[in-house]
Structure formats: structure tokens, C-alpha cells
Amino acid sequence: MPINRRIGIIDIGSNSIRLVIYELFPTLAYRVIGEFKQSARLSQKIGDDNVLPTDDIDELIQILKQFHQICTAYEVTDMRAAATAAIRNASNSRQIIDLLRLQTGIHVELLSGEDEARVGFLGMMHALDISDGMLVDIGGGSTEVSVFRNRERLHSVSFPFGAVNTTRKFSNDGNFTDEQLRCIRQMVLQAVEGEPWIQQHPGLPLVGLGGTIRSLSKITQKKRKYSLPVTHNYSMSAEDMDEWMKLLPSLPADKRKKVDGLSKDRYDIIVPGLTILHTLFEAASASHYVISGAGLRDGLFQESYLSASPDYDTSLSLVERSVYNLLGLHSTAPAAHLHKVAEHALSLFDALREIQAFDERTRQLLHCAALLYRIGVAINYYQYAKHSFTLITQARLDGLSHRETLLVASIASFKTKSRVQQTVLQHKDILLESDVDLIVRLGTLLQLAIASDHSETQAVASLDALVDSAGKELQLSLQTKSDPSVEIREIAALSKDLKKSWNVKLTLHVNGDAGASSSRT
Predict the structure, then answer these.
(1) Residue ranges matching CATH 1.10.3210.10 in the chain
(2) Which portions of this protein are annotated as coiled-coil regions (predicted)?
């Protein structure tokens, strides 16, 4: 039986050095099983002669040796390590790379600015369902900007300024005067003038990578008491960022440490990062901000170990790939059962579209919920519906908005209308009042679909659904291949719920190997 591979991805950034350990299954399902970070601030240590001093190279060597030991403990079989702006821009970069390989045994790729933009874009594209935008990755020593249309990168540039080296250039203590902020803005605008394409695509969302925008999203969520503390695919308005642009520079550096949600290792570099981000947003006339939790490290993994595999299915949508990845990690029910439930749920949905004109996206959400309804068994079989809600909302379903994620979780775990009302109230900052009716209706359809394969043996081979011309009766025709008595009983038990949620009467017609029959409920 094939064994899972463990893969280490090392990102030697200008602010921090990170190791992420992935577990990759033979099915290409994967998950992160470890993440380790050391704050090095290499961009601050580059001398006036652009040389990284020997002592700092030695410190970097010790960090990589420790990472190598961690990889050994995790039984990592494959590794990819890459260095970005700080080492790229050092005049002794080749010496650094050679020493790292000699002293640690780790071959480190030296990414060009173009490579960094390309790989970061790849990581983001496999995590966000967004067609057009401007991607901004603010690191410690550089800022990569890309414009993309129809999910294709049109232009990219790497600017030689980031949160760390800009802090070093303009401040000694993390405090900034209005004049220093003006100089940072001017630096960014001068860079933009050399890349006119940045201003030729107004109205696009600015998709942000890196610690600056993640930190800003976290403190925004804390301030708002946001009910789903997930930064990936979180949106922020221009007004949100304008407020932070007014507040954060006005706070002394030591007071910034106390801002709820702002990590202690970023309080002194957040203002330059914010200023770079804000200036690019205004220069590009962007519409709003979107945070991507996936970037360079994800792109390195994607490029080397997923996209490169001959088994990688490029036909799947982002949402489908994410759902199947989660199922690949947690085999909590027979695949045949889950696919049969999903098939029957969509048949019911298509028939009842005659009553309620739900769109194709809503159909996709029901499909996701049907496939994932049993995922909570990975935590515990008992009360698995509750655990399914938790897993779906916390596992990061790429391609879904926060509202859509909550809808899928609520439909998958649906039990009663009162519970749905509690969920909508708990997440009233994300869900709509009308979502109560949506969840109840789709949740009822999912429960019917689950009932149609209650024995998990596919006794009901197919289910045909039809609404009568008056829109008052749902006629179900079940084609069976074995005794469907369990399924018929479970479906009949849901007839009252169907009447309450859809205002239709349920009629069953059964045909199959067990003999033809007809029953009305």
C-alpha cells in the first residue's frame, strides 16, 4: 500500500524564515502538519555595502540546521527551499547560498523577483476563486505587484522595498513623522511611475499576500468582533484601511504593541507596510482589499508536488478540488454513499427549482454540503453533524466566500429550524436573515437525499423527482436494485418537514427488483 509523503517547504524571507511541512497522500490530498518560524529580519542586517555579515550568515545556518532536524523528526522525504529579496539583493548572495548548502546540506534556490511574483501568484490562484485583480505581496525586503485578468498574469514587477527595509530606511525606533510617511509614499509613487500598467486597470480588487495585510485583517476582525476568525478570503473596504492609515502611524510604537490582534513582532514594521499597501491601492484605483492566506510557500508546494503530478486533475473547479481534498483526508463514509446522496440531492433541487428559482451557485453549495455532511465523523461519530459544521468552517474550503462557507456548513449539519436561527444569529455579521429559509429548504432536501440511501448500500439506484403543474406535489420515483424498505420508511418520516419548508406534498412511486409498488405519504 502506498505511503504518504512528507514534504518540507522552506521560505527564507526578508523578515522571517519559515518551514512548512505538508503531508501528501497518494490521491494528491494534502494537509499542513507542521509550521515553524524564526524571525530573522535579514533586510535589516544587510550592510551599507550590500553584504550580509558573516555573523548573520552563521545565524541563518543555525536556523536551517534546526529546520533540518525538525524535518528528520517528521520523516520528511522531500524538501524545497527558496530565498527571496534579502539574499537576492545581497552582493554576497552566491557565497551565502554555497555556505548554506555546505553547512546544512540544504540546496536553496535563489528566486528572482519575477520568480517570486510567479510562484506567489500560483499559490494564490489555487486558493481564491477570483478572475481579475491586482496581486500585492509585501515582504520584508521587496514588494511584488501583478495584474491578472481571466486568472492569467499579465504583468509583474518586484520593487526593492518591503516592510523591514523601509522601516530601517526611514525610522530608528518604529515611530514615523508625517514627513517620513510622505517620503515613503513618494518612494512608492515613483516606483509606480515606472510601471504604467499598474494604473491602467482601475476598479479591480487588490488581493494581498504577506504578513502586513494578514495583520491588518486580524486587527480589523478583532475590532469588529467578526464571528468567523478566518483571514483567508476576508474582504476589507477602502474605508477600513483609511481608518488604520489614520490610527496606526499616530500611535507610539510601544502603544501599537497593545493593538488587539497585532503580533508583537510586527508592531514596528506595520506602518511602512500599511503605507506601501495604501499607496498602491490608491495609485491603482482599486475597489477593495481581499486577503489571500496562500502565497509563496503554497506556490512552491503546488508547483513541485501537485501540478507536476500526472494524476493532477486540471478539470476540477477550485471548490471541487478543495472538497475532494477534504474528503481525501477524512474517509468517514463510503464514497459510493456520498456520491449517491449528492446525486439525489441535486435531483431534488432541480425538480423544486419550479417553485424556488435558486441559481447555479446555490446548487453548487448544496452539492458541497451533500459530499461533506459526514465529515464530522473524523472527530467523533456521535454528534457528527456538530463536528461537520466545525470542520467545514475551519478547514478552509478554497473558492467559497465566508458566507458561502457558513451556508455549506449549516446545510451539511442541518437538523432543525431553531438551530439554524441560532447559527444565523451567531453569524449575523456574515449571514442574511433570508439565509434561514435557504438553509432550511436545502437542509431538508439533503436530509431527504440521505434518507434515500439510509442503508448506504445504494438500494435506491436512481431517484427521479417531478413537481406537479400546480406546484403542490413532489412526485418521487425510486428505481431500486434491492429491498428499499429502510429508505422508504426514512423518506416518509421527512414528509412533514418537506411540507413545512417547501409547502409540497410528497408522493412516492417505487419500482425495482423487490417488486413494483406505489405509496403516498
Answers:
(1) 318-520
(2) none
